[in-house]
Amino acid sequence: MSSEGGISSPTATASTATAAAAASMSQLQSSFNPSPALKRALPPTVAEEHEPPYLDVLLAGGMGGTIADFIMHSVDTVKTRLQGQPTANPPKYNNMFHAYSTILREEGVSRGLYSGLAPAMTGSLPGTTLYFGTYEYTKRTLTAAGCPDTLAHLAGGSIGDFFASFIYVPSEVLKTRMQLQGRYNNPSFISGYNYKNTWHALQMIVKYDGVAALYQGYRATLVRDVPFSALQFAFYEKFKVEARKWEARPDGQMSLHIETACGAVAGGLAGFLTTPLDVMKTLLQTQVKKPTPSSTSIATGTVAASNQKYYVGIWDGLKWNLKHHGVIGGLFRGVGPRVFWTSLQSAIMFVFYEQAIHLQENMRHFGHYPYASS
């Protein structure tokens, strides 16, 4: 029949149905695709995750590393005292808790447990800033070139620590000497040093031993820190990936307690495996110059320690300590406070780093970041 009879043709009916279906699909698709305004209202972790800008990495890394080093400095002092105390029977410090209580009672907080804080902080901020920036750049470059993730993390940690070592090794030398000395002319601990303060220590070292003395034990520091940093970041990145899969949060991030656990376990494992190298780093950096019959101790600000072993290198120190003190008492002395320190320091550093990255990302996304727009 014709359309005048009140009944439409099959062709017209099909066209109308197709148009209605297309309109419905378009409306449904638009409901699942947020508008640009809505996308701007979502935090970046929900909208679209991407690599943070290098400026964010530098600021977050410097802040996280410095805060962690400050909080854990007293534990580092205890570790240094345990590793560097002169050979004696019985030893002055028996274990971590005995050392902590003894130092606190005899020397106090600021010039005892927190001795050497000034040089530590002086090297920590620029050192960790350069460290995180180099790590992130190396990791991204190698990953983009098709390098396996684990190898990229190991290489990034190693290269980052190598470049940062030019900054933090001199501060490490000053810090460990001030930590061993404790109070000026400390009667409670024979360290071999007699410095009034950090500036006096720097002057005496440069004047009588030369600038090169600020890099004393440099090879031992690299041998310790390069594998430590490589293992720490490789462990953390691996744990972070597995933790995100396990939690399966909608925003793709880790909860705070899981983030803390990943950082602590990564730092603890790396610290335990590199403890023998840390022992040798401390002994090489803090030993006085090889004694001579005509040596004097008053002018140089040092106290002679004639009965102490003089190490000519890392391998010599490892063999001597293993032979005379064994595995636990020689190579792994101070392992308790070292693992405790590396665990908590790593946890604090990574937590502050991740939180600072998220904060800067959100500030930039909502237009509140002063250094860049969204």
General description of the model:
With 374 residues, the chain is an all-alpha fold. Helix content is 70%, strand content 0%. It has 15 helices and no strands. It has helices at residues 10-32, 36-41, 44-47, 54-71, 73-84, 96-107, 109-113, 117-144, 149-181, 198-209, 218-247, 256-273, 275-286, 314-331, 335-365. It starts with 9 loop residues before the first helix and ends in a 9-residue tail after the last helix. It is found in: Membrane. It is a multi-pass membrane protein. This is Mitochondrial carrier. Keywords: Membrane, Repeat, Transmembrane, Transmembrane helix, Transport. Pfam families: Mito_carr (PF00153).
Helices and strands, with pairings:
Layout: H1 10-32, H2 36-41, H3 44-47, H4 54-71, H5 73-84, H6 96-107, H7 109-113, H8 117-144, H9 149-181, H10 198-209, H11 218-247, H12 256-273, H13 275-286, H14 314-331, H15 335-365
Keywords: Membrane, Repeat, Transmembrane, Transmembrane helix, Transport
Membrane topology: Multi-pass membrane protein
Solcar repeats: 52-141, 148-242, 254-359
What are the defining features of this structure?
mainly alpha, 374 residues, 15 helices, globular, single chain, disordered N terminus
Short overview:
The protein is built from 15 helices and no strands. Helix 12 packs across helix 15.
Strand content: under 5%
User: Helix segment count?
Assistant: 15
Shape: globular
| Largest beta-sheet details | none
Q: In angstroms, what separates the terminal alpha carbons? A: 63 Å
What is the overall pLDDT average?
79
Radius of gyration: 29 Å
Low-pLDDT runs of 5+ residues are: 1-8, 31-48, 294-300, 302-306
Secondary-structure element series: HHHHHHHHHHHHHHH
Helix content, binned percent: over 70%
How many beta-strand runs?
A: 0
- Structural class category: mainly alpha
